[in-house]
Design a protein that fits this description.
Number of strands: 16
Bound molecules: flavin-adenine dinucleotide, D-malate, zinc ion
Shape: globular
Number of helices: 17
Structural class: alpha+beta
């Protein structure tokens, strides 16, 4: 299903080809066999390279022949310095769950993967400050914190594979941003390596620190374009003792907006997630997983509401009163509250399972966008109309569009517009782009809410950022990475 998505990009001739001598240097540095996947001097099959060269959506394809897995910050420093001195291009890679092609090489860039940098370095049980290597898997960090009564302030469907360094590099938003805020606020410090090997030691543990420019912010959402994050210091909140989840059905998007308004009003400090799913996204999950519907009836819209607090009785009472009001006033048509942990899990699975089920037919065009709430769902309706008008919806290779679906983090005005297809097809792409980006620009939205730019959105940044802003960004890139070896062909 992989497309030759960007045939217009040519390999930058300034970058050197990897030689046996380069490989020998890295072999000497990293030692153990497990630290190196080498398709240059060793007889490594394409299959061995596949996890590093391919993405989750089968959309992007790299041609990397060398994967390095450093075990320490010092090793990262030596790797990057050598690459910079020898003009070898580099792609930092964490769990490779990114959705914009950022972690996949375009040509033969060297992948520097963080999976061996997986130690928790420090935790303070009083302040909740965690310091950990970039390659710690998000779920592992959260399980460590759970034992101490704390929670990682970010959660997302890919938690079992993504690395916290990758999360910070993408500035991932996730399911509870509404409650715990953005990584720009929760990350207290960063350790990173610049292309010339300099170790940026800004691994502070303070919540307040107004001494000069806050340079770590450049690495949060920097997508590996100015340096490689090797460790993160992050402020973690107390793990809530009481968690409740409700799953509701509504007749219209307007009613979901009313429900959100009421949720903020009545659940206020205990509201921890407000997720929106349209019927198309939910029907796909039922179809693929063949699971029992959570509600008896079928509705055009659904939402998942979560509360997190410290007093189960108080929280349940609040939630019941809120739901009563929604039902009495006819704001929602039906709803169910999870009675135990298993039901909480199955409600979340009905939401978190959407991305995987959308990919079931082969491919998916994904648009992760910020839109003012009042306009948010209109984009899905208008996109569906365009696809239908173009006659691309059907059941065959000739008519490859399976479904147009909308879901996302409504509490953060973040829509995920997805078009599931049997195969990637230029005709579908032409109906969608630049239409989606122009539409978003007109309503002053953002073409990337939480997934980043990667290679997918590199050409469209001008729809959300002014010429002046883009030029300032280019100056920063040139300052930190004058040779341009860090994640080339992407971002800007
Ligand atoms: P990768 O995919 O490996 O890398 C992502 C980018 O960061 C690349 O540009 C890479 O070069 C760079 N990078 C990686 N590690 C480093 C490092 N140490 N230093 C510098 N640069 C680095 N995103 C959300 O925001 N919210 C969601 O709710 C969400 N849900 C998801 C659900 C699923 C099922 C999937 C597959 C993805 C989801 N994502 C979501 C997208 C993705 O951004 C996150 O999964 C995660 O933040 C990526 O982490 P990773 O370790 O896999 O990074
Ligand atoms: C989500 O919210 O499920 C993720 O961002 C992944 C996606 O957009 O599909
Ligand atoms: Zn999301």
């Amino acid at each position: 299903f992989t497309t030759d998505t960007y045939p217009e990009i040519k390999r930058d001739p300034r970058f050197a080809q990897i030689t046996k001598e380069h490989v020998a240097f890295f072999r000497e540095l990293l030692g153990k066999d497990s630290a190196l996947v080498d398709g240059v001097t060793a007889d490594v099959s394409l299959e061995d390279m596949e996890p590093y060269n391919g993405d989750w959506m089968r959309k992007y394809r790299g041609h990397c022949k060398l994967v390095l897995k450093p075990g320490s910050t010092e090793e990262v420093s030596k790797i990057l310095k050598y690459c910079n001195d020898n003009m070898l291009a580099v792609v930092p890679q964490g769990g490779n769950t990114g959705l914009v092609g950022g972690s996949i090489p375009v040509f033969d860039e060297i992948v520097v993967n963080t999976s061996r940098m997986n130690k928790i370095r420090f935790f303070d049980e009083v302040s909740g400050v965690l310091v950990a290597d970039a390659g710690v898997i998000l779920e592992v960090a959260d399980q460590f914190l759970a034992e101490k009564g704390y929670i990682f302030p970010l959660d997302l469907g890919a938690k079992g594979s993504c690395h916290i360094g990758g999360n910070v590099a993408t500035n991932a938003g996730g399911l509870r941003l509404l409650r715990y805020g953005s990584l720009h606020g929760t990350v207290l410090g960063i350790e990173a390596v610049l292309p010339d090997g300099t170790i940026v030691d800004d691994l502070g543990r303070l919540r307040k620190n107004n001494t000069g420019y806050d340079l770590k912010q450049l690495f949060i959402g920097g997508e590996g374009t100015i340096g490689m994050i090797t460790a993160v210091s992050i402020h973690c909140p107390q793990r809530p003792k009481a968690v409740n989840v409700a799953y509701l059905g509504a007749e219209s998007y307007e009613q979901l907006q009313q429900a959100f308004r009421e949720a903020k009003n009545h659940l206020s400090e205990i509201l921890s997630a407000f997720e929106m799913m349209d019927s198309y996204s939910q029907d796909l999950v039922y179809k693929v997983r063949q699971n029992k519907r959570l509600l008896e009836g079928e509705y055009p819209f659904y939402c998942l509401i979560e509360t997190s607090g410290s007093n189960p009785t108080h929280d349940s009472e609040k939630l019941e009163a809120f739901l009563d009001q929604l039902m009495t006033e006819g704001i929602v048509s039906d709803g169910v509250v999870a009675q135990d942990e298993t039901q909480i899990k199955s409600m979340w699975a009905q939401r978190e399972g959407v991305p995987e089920c959308l990919g079931h037919w082969g491919g998916v065009y994904k648009y992760d966008v910020s839109i003012p709430l009042s306009d948010l769902y209109r984009l899905v309706d208008e996109t569906r109309e365009r696809i239908e008008k173009a006659g691309l919806k059907g059941d065959t290779d000739e008519f490859p569009v399976v479904e147009v679906a909308g879901y996302g983090h409504m509490g953060d005005s973040n829509l995920h517009l997805n078009v599931a297809v049997r195969r990637y097809d230029k005709r579908v792409e032409e109906v969608l782009e630049p239409f989606v980006y122009e539409w978003i620009s007109k309503v002053n939205g953002s073409i990337s809410a939480e997934h980043g730019l990667g290679i997918a959105k590199k050409n469209y940044i001008g729809f959300s950022r002014s010429e002046t802003m883009i030029n300032l960004m280019k100056q920063i890139k040139a300052l930190y990475d004058p040779n341009g070896i860090m994640n080339p062909y992407k971002y800007l």
